[in-house]
Model the fold of this input.
Amino acid sequence: MIYGDSQNILWNLKLLLDSVFLRDGHFRNVSRGLSIRSVDVSRLARDSSSDSYFAGISGAQVWQSPYKEWVYESGITMNDAPFISGMTPPAAPSGVWVNGTFFSNGTGVSGSQFYIDYMNGRVIFNGTGIPNNSNLQVNYSYRTFRVDFSNRFARADIEYHAETELKDNPYTNDNVLYPSGGAQVGILPAIFLELDEDDREAFELGNRSAIVTQPVFCHVYAYSPVERDAAMDLIRSRWHIQMPLIDFNYAPFPLSGLMATMSPNYIPYQTLLTNVTHNGQKVISKTFTFEDVRGRPQEPLLRLERGVVTVTTKIYNISPTGRIPQNPYI
Done:
């Protein structure tokens, strides 16, 4: 697939906002044995209904945690604010405990390889897996704000959370399981990114390169006005920043495959911003700015508080090492 300015700006905004929200403390760490309302939230429950979800994998065995959106990022530095800087940073799982014995990522358990599904907060075994009555526990961190794209799944997420009583949250009741990954229901609070109409102007006389003006709607859905306003303020605080534009024709995505596990080519976002070389190519193609940022609250949707922030980005055909040629594939 070829990625032009439209998809590149969406992915750059997602990775940027994922980093911003983590740095500002919008996550929770779960250590082995952590109990919330008498529920051990480090313990995963067997989800046999999702075993057949993975095409081409015979006998996949799925174990589901109470929380989706596990943090995969490494090297997160906390915000310098006094009450945030002292927080323990989020950490990606380094392995699993099975009946009290630790198995690190990549080693497998009794001959069964396992994979971490970060997006859906699951551990998936390839093959027969482990006995269904096993005590499977994981140390992990999960996001309390999701950044995603406004697509056909967003409406299902919003309707589900708007019409139910937070029944998938162990903080509010004793239900252990989220809908599993196959149910295609993501977490809220969330920010959904959506492109608006773009525009172009000449970069310079006699040059085909354009300055692209690309507005992006950031639709915020939260359970309280405080959560909504915090998200909107974090987005608005990026007004007039200038950022390198990572080109995903050359840079690897962080998660890959049907199981949304860590890509074997994973490069941390903050490292990509330094314009590293991957497969012989520099990963930065252009730069972009938050030219204008406007936000407003919206009428609640049943139990959900809503707001929208419009980020008007300007994309320039200039990389950290100077102007670059047009993408030959588009």
Remarks:
- The radius of gyration is 21 Å.
- DSSP finds five helices and 24 strands in the chain.
- Helices lie at 5-23, 82-85, 152-162, 225-236, 269-272.
- The domain at 1-26+189-330 is CATH 3.30.2000 (STM4215-like).
